[in-house]
């Protein structure tokens, strides 16, 4: 008798679970609520910041918020490349574990932009901590075009010299996997790490015209 009773209870619970699952379909489609307090750059995170999704072939998605209040021209420049579709099929071509992953080489880059960081005369106090996205450049301060990097582990020695403009809000496991791939002596991955797409939800933000460096 006990087995029969347990089976009846189990069947009842299964029916209830199926019913609840059906009722929760709308909830599942709602945007995930993220606790901003877990991030070292929580001060800059806002619900109305643009959200970028970087999809990496065979790995998955990384989501970032962009911080136009800190580096508006840099953000607008990044958004322009996204809308041009320039990043699709590009790669993370330089990877150094415990430092950063770098990508964004495009065939026809737009103009060079002014580096939005303090040593270039522009206030930007975003520290290069784990998860921060920043612009790559040459030794010339106003040389950034399309290339960017995402900090794997805290690299605060970059502060004041590179234009941080956003931070990861999900996909840290993907970041860790990418940072751990095998590389050659030039820090290039042995197997291509391909960016399938980069998409953006502007959250109402209106990107302006990109200002080129003089």
TrEMBL record:
GO terms for biological process: protein folding. CDD domains: cyclophilin (cd00317). Its EC number is 5.2.1.8. Keywords: Isomerase, Rotamase. This is Peptidyl-prolyl cis-trans isomerase. The keyword Isomerase applies. The keyword Isomerase applies.
């Amino acid at each position: 008798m006990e087995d029969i009773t347990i089976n009846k209870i189990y069947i009842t619970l299964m029916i209830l679970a199926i019913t609840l699952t059906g009722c929760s379909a709308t909830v599942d489609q709602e945007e995930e609520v993220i606790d901003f307090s877990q991030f070292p750059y929580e001060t800059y995170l806002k619900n109305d910041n643009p959200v970028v999704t970087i999809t990496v072939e065979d790995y998955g998605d990384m989501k970032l918020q962009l911080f136009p209040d800190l580096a508006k021209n840099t953000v607008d420049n990044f958004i322009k490349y996204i809308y041009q579709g320039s990043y699709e099929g590009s790669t993370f071509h330089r990877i150094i574990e415990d430092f950063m992953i770098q990508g964004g080489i495009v065939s026809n880059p737009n103009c060079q932009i002014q580096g939005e960081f303090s040593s270039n005369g522009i206030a930007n106090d975003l520290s290069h901590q784990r998860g921060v996205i920043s612009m790559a450049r040459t030794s010339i301060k106003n040389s950034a075009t399309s290339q960017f990097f995402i900090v794997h582990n805290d690299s605060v020695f970059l502060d004041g010299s590179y234009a941080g403009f956003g931070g990861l809000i999900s996909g840290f496991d993907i970041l860790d996997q990418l940072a751990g791939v095998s590389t050659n002596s030039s820090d290039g991955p042995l197997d291509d790490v391909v960016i399938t797409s980069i998409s953006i939800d502007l959250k109402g933000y209106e990107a302006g015209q990109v200002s080129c460096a003089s």
